[in-house]
Amino acid sequence: MTIVEDNHPPQHVAIIMDGNNRFAKKKQLPKGDGHKEGKTVLDPIVEYCRKVGVQALTVFAFSSENWNRPQPEVDLLMFLLEQTIHEQIPRMVEFEIALRFIGDDAKLPEHLKQLIQEAEQKTAHFTKMTLTIAISYGGKWDIAESAKRIAQDVVDQKISVDQINADLFNQYICLGDLPAVDLLIRTGGDYRISNFLLWQLAYAELYFTKVLWPEFSVDELKKAFAVFSERERRFGQTSEQIQQNKIEN
């Protein structure tokens, strides 16, 4: 199954990059090598998304729950994230991609916070695509933080309680300025969204694959896009309404 590259791709793709540790066990590699292998997979995925016109790609690199993992693994992940950002900055400049980060940075090392700020500043003006890396991110945290900022704006009389609705809430949520997520891909064989982009995934198509992240290729991405292109996205309407809209448009 492949995708014809001039078809309309999803505007916003989100990926839960799962299966690194299982890949290491499968290949009988030292502990941690699965994460190192997984780090190399992202570049061709980013390049293909940009090539076919995806507007936004958001990847789950480190969840708020991942802080509970063994400290040596957490330290390795922080090191690999730092390496990844250093490597991505010149690539983002080359491909004119804006690099962004979402998540609770309270526990991040100070030098990593500074690197994140530098990466965002250097690439903020690019408009070909937006690559967002979720670090120390959780969907519940995102919603709670948005509610907190809305409450503060009500207290400060910037908005009224009556103004609060889904459209206004979307202005406070992470990635609210980007298209809603069209397609969520999870590698590794698990069938859950693991507290990722809970608000942003409201109408996303979900695609689960048993392929482990270090083995996920552009061909596997094309399979996901092909399945997406075959889905009928009704957004509460009937199939007949969707077909009529297509005829009218």
TrEMBL record:
Q: What is the main EC category here?
A: transferase
Q: What does the record give as cofactor?
A: Mg(2+)
> What GO terms fall under cellular component here?
cytosol
Q: Please tell me whether the keyword Transferase is annotated for this protein.
A: yes
UniProt binding sites for Mg(2+):
18, 205
Q: Which GO terms describe its biological process?
A: cell wall organization; peptidoglycan biosynthetic process; polyprenol biosynthetic process; regulation of cell shape
Q: Which residues form the active site?
A: 18, 66
Q: Which residues bind substrate?
A: 19-23, 31, 35, 63-65, 67, 69, 186, 192-194
* Pfam families (UniProt xref): Prenyltransf
- Specify whether Magnesium is a keyword of the entry: yes
The record's function comment reads:
Catalyzes the sequential condensation of isopentenyl diphosphate (IPP) with (2E,6E)-farnesyl diphosphate (E,E-FPP) to yield (2Z,6Z,10Z,14Z,18Z,22Z,26Z,30Z,34E,38E)-undecaprenyl diphosphate (di-trans,octa-cis-UPP). UPP is the precursor of glycosyl carrier lipid in the biosynthesis of bacterial cell wall polysaccharide components such as peptidoglycan and lipopolysaccharide.
What's the family? Belongs to the UPP synthase family.
Q: Which HAMAP family match?
A: ISPT
Protein name per UniProt: Ditrans,polycis-undecaprenyl-diphosphate synthase ((2E,6E)-farnesyl-diphosphate specific)
Organism this protein belongs to: Acinetobacter apis
Gene behind this protein: uppS
